[in-house]
Amino acid sequence: MQAEFRARVSMKNPVHFLALGFGSGLVPVMPGTFGSLAAIPLLLLFAQVSTLSFIAITLMASVIGIYLCGKTADDMQVHDHGSIVWDEIAGMFVTLLFLPVTASTLVIGFLLFRVFDILKPWPIGIIDKRLHGGTGIMLDDLLAGAMACGCLHIAINLWPAVLTLL
């Protein structure tokens, strides 16, 4: 059955290429984790931009992701197939909003984001189940990113040494 879904997408199609996280979503195990890891080079690339530019990049990744994920899901004929991981990439950007991109924030942010994305606490789980299309695919991961971001900000404010752990 997996081959049937993959036959409906092409890495030569730029929409599919991006939605599948540059191919990271095609890893047969834990595609969401590999999609989240695929965000790290992009985060490092944009680490030195201004806060306003980082916000703009995050918003663009999120809005464009609605189209990318929705179109790829339609082409695959499966809602939120595991190989669609652009939502994880955008979620990782949300996780690091208003934070320095350092080894510590990347590792802790990655772990927090994966916990929220996998466990889907309220309201993430409700959105994941009830909202469909590109918006539904994106929104649960954006909320997971927001929750991870909030936790990371709290951790840094309570324990500033978090920034120097690694």
TrEMBL record:
Residue ranges crossing the lipid bilayer per the database entry: 45-68, 89-113, 142-165
Example of a GO biological process term: phosphatidylglycerol biosynthetic process
Membrane topology term: Multi-pass membrane protein
GO annotations of cellular component type: plasma membrane
Cofactor(s) the protein requires to work: Mg(2+)
Residue span, YutG/PgpA domain: 18-155
Domain of life per record: Bacteria
Function: Lipid phosphatase which dephosphorylates phosphatidylglycerophosphate (PGP) to phosphatidylglycerol (PG).
Pathway membership: Phospholipid metabolism; phosphatidylglycerol biosynthesis; phosphatidylglycerol from CDP-diacylglycerol: step 2/2
GO molecular-function term, one example from the UniProt record: phosphatidylglycerophosphatase activity
Subcellular location: Cell inner membrane
Catalytic activity: a 1,2-diacyl-sn-glycero-3-phospho-(1'-sn-glycero-3'-phosphate) + H2O = a 1,2-diacyl-sn-glycero-3-phospho-(1'-sn-glycerol) + phosphate
Coiled-coil regions listed in the entry: none
Key words, A-Z: Cell inner membrane, Cell membrane, Hydrolase, Lipid degradation, Lipid metabolism, Magnesium, Membrane, Metal-binding, Phospholipid degradation, Phospholipid metabolism, Transmembrane, Transmembrane helix
The protein's name: Phosphatidylglycerophosphatase A
Keyword Transmembrane: yes
EC number: 3.1.3.27
InterPro entries per the UniProt record, alphabetical: PgpA (IPR026037), PgpA-like_sf (IPR036681), YutG/PgpA (IPR007686)
